[in-house]
Amino acid sequence: MQVEEVVNYQADPDVAQEEARVRSMPNPSGLPGEDVIHIRELRKVYGKGSKMKVAVRALNLGLGKGECFGFLGINGAGKTSTLNILTGAQLPSSGNAWLGSKNILTDQKDVRRLIGYCPQHDALLNLLSVRDHLKLFGRIKGVKPDVLDSFVEEMMQNLDLKAHEHKLAKMLSGGNKRKLGVGIALMGSPQLVFLDEPSTGVDPGARRFMWDIIARLSTHRKECTVVLTTHNMEEAEALCSKIGIMVGGRLRCLGSNQRLKAQFGQGYQMEVKLSQTEDEAVKLLVETRNMAPMFSTHAELAQLCAALGDPARANTVREGCEEGYLIWSALKQNGHVTASQVATWWLSEDNSHALTTSLQGAFGAAVQLLERHERTLRFRITTGEAAGGLSIADVFEKMETGVRSSVDIEEYGAPTHTPAFVVSNVYAYEI
Fold it and tell me: How far apart are the C-alpha atoms of 198 and 133, rounded to whole Å?
């Protein structure tokens, strides 16, 4: 899921408040309670004249020890330029920053001792293996020789790289290169970790391992401060205690995940899985309607739909239409469909229409069907400006007291008693 530019941006009061706080503070001295990362009026300009591109515009931000901060934004928003400046890869056009009370302009050697960095593009040595990379950078970062091997083993296990430990870097897949880059950044337990799109190309299982490691370092143990850039809101939600959204080099939104949802969210997404149609109900419909044993043409199905009270439903029995695709597919493959198949489809569609009607009754015209696959439907519920008109608790209450009494909804996740509907926020900037 991608982060799109916020249209008609209005100044976020939290961003303004953070800018005022940073500007009013003296330079960090390393005392407890001060910002571990302190960025003041940072600006980066590429090119000159008509080709001038302002990548970062007057960025003011402070982060404390143990925070995990997520930079979200589209390509070109200024995320990577900010990290390049903080890590010393580039100089700012103006402004300054302090990392662990060390000035990035005058104390660059001291700054580099504090940080671990995973750049956006892999910076690996092609002729070194995974194990050799980790041992080399472990030594560079001052890991003691007596614990280096165990540290390397743990890192390879955590990032699911053990099976590739003797492979040369040039032989690794793109995802494994990213995992190795993250492992290098975390070697030596640095005080500050900068990760530029760390999970790009990484498989879901290894990505979860990676998230667990980063979470343990920052939000759980409070050992270091992590700054990561990402396009993935799920990653930001899983890791970050604070999120900032950059657009056009400016910090547009700032706050926790829940606060951004509350302020900018325009509604919720709700996924519902309907119950399996019962055999007894199918048998009863076939018998009471005296259905023919099988149907061989679309015209016969259309005639049945008219007799059952909804002639328009026959129009859904076609390729590309989810509502009638199973019947269309069976008719095309076998040359006919049985009465039981048709009755099962009819009752399932009745239940689906009952769900939509019940949701509209509970939430009004704000309900929109986004996606459907067989018995699983996903809806958007628009809740008004800034999502303030309806809380998640309100959604669940309406579902429990109204919708479920008139619709057969299957419950799944029995070991955890997960209800049949899952609600999550939808963002104004279409994350």
Answer: 17
